[in-house]
Amino acid sequence: MEREDAVHTADNTMDIPALIAPVIRGLCIHTLGYPWVVRYDPDTQEVPPEALVVDIESALTEPGVLDEESAAKIFREAYTAWEFDSAPTGVDAAIQVARIKQGPSCVVVKRKDAPQACYWIDRTLDAAQQRGADRNASLLKEKVYPQASSLDAGFSAAQRAAVVRNKVVLVSGGMSRNRGIGEAVAWSLARSGAVVFLADQDLSEAQRVAASINDREKETRAVALEVHGTDEASVAALFSTIAKTTGGLDICISNEELLRLESVLDQSLADFAAVTEVNYTGFFLLLKYAGVLFRRQYRTAPQWKTDIIQINSQLGLMGSKRHGANVGSKFAGLGLISSAALELVAYNTKVNAVCPGNIFDHPIWSDGEQGLLRVYFKRTPIPGIKSPSELRAWYEEAIPMKRGCTEDDVLRAIYYLIEQDYETGQAIPVTGGTVMLH
């Protein structure tokens, strides 16, 4: 009987260059133990002499369709042969065995002896792009150190942000100043040393955030991309672009959200469907295409851990008046997470959720007439509450920790989920005790 995943190995939802890039990135990660950037370049007029050249013709099952598993096998074999041919001798060999590994900085893909594309490899986006511009295929060399255990002396929670350093992360949604916390998440990741793709339906807002990050960091640390999260073709194109820009991903964070404050007795089917489409179907599409990309990296880097994290809500853990559609979509998202976690663990991908409580200082709550505090104050009056600020104090008094959730609280939970190796399919409450253990 054929293996279950064999059905999917000829999946052609991404174009061939986008399918190949994560396979190459996986090889680099596996060999050099570092989350390299792999940048696609269609220019093959000059093949650098130190490049690794790989013929993919035998992995094509039909014109334009590349078998994923066969392609990974071809690249693994080509890389092994390249390592053997380029291995140093004498004193250099002794040094390399002790503490240095090397790999190609350029991979050329060909078919029937005709070069098709180059893939330039380096630590950062800017460095990989410069290699392509200079046609510089000098070898990558990386010092290899024994991996530190969490039980080693000196390990502390202060090291948590280091778990994203040099990794490639997608943050989808919430870039607008007035909705979601995507901007705060993107800033934190970039300051911690990650390369961050900012994907949003509002491209101008994503570009605003990316420009601010890059200006502050003095290098290309953030890339803005447009995505319509409920359009499958748009989501597929997003992941193809990511694959051809950095070779792949290490972490995918879904922050798409649509709220409709309406009673289940009055809400229109159109509004209910819109909330479900964004919060549930949109997350499904992001999870699907992130999972496919991670599977391709896994083919050549089986020890490398990857993460999918949904910014869910305390509404995913408890009911709430006038939030029927919102609660239903959030509960559904957690169900999808637990099921996907069981599947994607086969590819060393963890799938988890963070469930924040009310972030009262965020514009979605506090922004004038449109903020939820004022909306709730008007729609659901509470005896003795005379203003939105009193309503906030009333809400906070009901929280065991006596305050609302903050962006920093959410970020700590995100870093924890990335850092830990053992949990998948979990929903982490960040609610100040509003939702406690089940």
Q: Approximately what portion of the residues adopt beta-strand conformation?
A: 15-25%
| CATH architecture label name of the largest domain | 3-Layer(aba) Sandwich
Rounded to an integer in angstroms, the radius of gyration calculated over CA atoms is 24 Å
What's the tally of helices? 13
Overall pLDDT level: 87
The SSE string, one letter per element, is HEEEEHHEEEHEEHEHEHEHEHEHHHHE
Helix content: 40-55%
Output the keywords.
438 residues; seven-stranded parallel sheet; four-stranded mixed sheet; 42% helix; disordered N terminus; elongated; alpha/beta
List the helices and strands and how they pair.
Layout: H1 16-32, E1 37-41, E2 52-55, E3 60-62, E4 65-66, H2 68-86, H3 90-99, E5 100-103, E6 106-111, E7 114-122, H4 125-134, E8 140-143, E9 168-172, H5 182-191, E10 195-200, H6 203-217, E11 222-226, H7 232-246, E12 251-254, H8 269-300, E13 306-311, H9 324-344, E14 349-356, H10 363-366, H11 372-379, H12 388-398, H13 407-419, E15 427-430
Parallel strand pairs: 2-6, 9-10, 9-12, 10-11, 12-13, 13-14, 14-15
Antiparallel strand pairs: 1-7, 3-4, 5-8, 6-7
Helix pairs in contact: 1-2, 1-7, 1-8, 5-6, 7-8, 8-9, 11-12
